[in-house]
Amino acid sequence: MKSTYVYIALIVLIIGGLIVMRNTSTKSVSVDRVTKYDTFARCLSDAGAKFYGAYWCPHCKEQKALFENSSKIPYVECSSPNGQEQLQICKDEGITGYPTWKFADGSVADGNQTLEKLSEKTNCPLPQV
Prior knowledge:
alpha+beta; 4 strands
């Protein structure tokens, strides 16, 4: 009787482990996906542009969506994990609202920016859509 419970427990653990492994590998693939905006985002970064935002900010989410959430966006997270404080890096940069873009020439653009405006500021060619 005890051995039956042990076998059932082992089967449950094995199935649970397989489910966890499957979900973990699926998440890592989606994080590293390639978008048509990766080259443009990388060019912005190389040109010294930085996008300051917060994970809880709906406008920042809109800005990221414009890039199809490319992992190459030169993004700087400003919020503490609990969403209650601003991180020191953003305090030092004088960031007071989100999203904020800063460029190599020292200029600042508040709010969501179009790809065209970002291209103009950095001379990065627009992605072919």
